[in-house]
Write a structure and sequence with these properties.
This protein is mostly beta strands. The protein has 1 helix and 27 strands. It starts with a strand and ends with a strand. The protein folds into 2 domains: 133 residues, Jelly Rolls (Sandwich); 165 residues, Jelly Rolls (Sandwich), CATH 2.60.120. This is Pirin. Belongs to the pirin family.
């Protein structure tokens, strides 16, 4: 029996297995920044507010001056935001804020409801501002849908980095966001997360393979879902298939799978976990179990905006001089070197 169940081409957003909802992949070659931390380039010809076309190699998304996503609500799931390149400015309706990136990860449990903005400030005014981000939506089970909102930072300096070599001495580098791999354990996830219970075998990692390297994904338990997203490189061989870049491998997790890389460095995102196996009803930023719960979420948001918006603008960015930091709702602030 083949270990690969299906090979699926990657779209703008990536389809993901239960317990995940989807993954958004953003890669933009932003130009130099201006005084407002936006692109020092003309915005003519862009559909400002809905700019998702990669004109000149970059997008404004919903931003008017600074690229990104101004204030918007969430309920019923979690966002795990992995920023490999560039920076994100976070602000939310709980009064929390942060600037993170260049290897940092933000883990946010929306729970019963939160508004937040995610803006991409272009701090470098002398050179280009390359940007690469994954945002993974991880579902919450019905019993956790209405927990209190929570966010935590997984700082790059504290995230486990695993370096191994194959039998030919070729290098494989793994950044472990969640779960256990190669006898190493990731940082603790948010407390109400499906990933917080090790029995759910949630595993999130990015993997970089040198040209011609070979790596074997070890067995998980039967019934676990696993997908491997091949997003940079040229071609790989696995399970008798030759697979070009920009494809997802949906695999049988309780069997080993070996990938042999081609002649170009390759990059992967690994998502694995025990399925929640509950009904999913989604309407935009709300993910619940029934249509009635969606209606209740919309009505509550219209009534109280999940705590109002305490920031000067809906596309708030922090001062250019600010380094990486996390300000929590209780007023505690953690700062990191730029």
């Amino acid at each position: 029996m083949s270990v690969i169940i299906k090979v699926r081409r990657l779209g703008f957003t990536w389809e993901t297995p239960d317990p995940f909802l989807f993954c958004a992949y953003h890669e933009d070659q932003y130009p130099k920044g201006n005084e407002e931390l936006g692109p020092d380039a003309p915005l003519e010809g862009r559909n400002i507010g809905q700019d998702f076309i990669s004109k000149d190699g970059w997008r404004m998304y919903h931003g008017n001056k600074v690229p990104g996503f101004p204030a918007h609500p969430h309920r019923g799931f979690e966002t795990i935001t992995i920023v490999q390149k560039g920076l994100v400015d976070h602000s939310d309706s709980l009064g929390a804020a942060g600037r993170f990136g260049n290897g940092d990860v933000q883990w946010m449990t929306a729970g019963r409801g939160v508004q937040h903005s995610e803006m991409f400030p272009l701090l470098n005014s002398e050179e280009e501002n390359p940007f690469l981000l994954f945002q993974i939506w991880l579902n919450l089970p019905k019993s956790k849908k209405m927990v209190a909102p929570h966010f935590k930072m997984l700082w790059s300096e504290e995230i486990p980095k695993i370096t191994i070599t194959d039998q030919q001495g070729k290098l494989i580098e793994i950044t472990l966001i969640a779960g256990t791999l190669q006898n190493q354990k990731a940082e603790t996830p948010a407390p109400d997360s499906w990933a917080s219970n090790s029995e759910n075998e949630v595993l999130i990692a990015t993997i970089k393979m040198a040209p011609n390297a070979q790596y074997t994904f070890k067995k998980a338990s039967e019934g676990i879902n696993r997908s491997i997203f091949f997003f940079k490189g040229n071609e790989i061989e696995s399970d008798g298939y030759k697979i070009p870049v920009n494809h997802e491998l949906i695999t049988v997790a309780h069997k080993e799978l070996t990938i042999k890389n081609g002649d170009k460095e390759s990059h992967f995102l690994l998502l694995q976990g025990k399925p929640i196996n509950e009904s999913v009803v989604q309407q935009g930023p709300f993910v619940m179990n029934t249509q009635q719960e969606i209606r209740e979420a919309i009505l509550e948001y219209q009534h109280n905006q999940f705590g109002k918006w305490p920031w000067p603008t809906y596309d708030h960015v922090h001062d250019k001089s600010k380094g990486r930091f996390a300000l929590y709702p209780d007023g505690n602030e953690i700062t990191k070197d730029q």
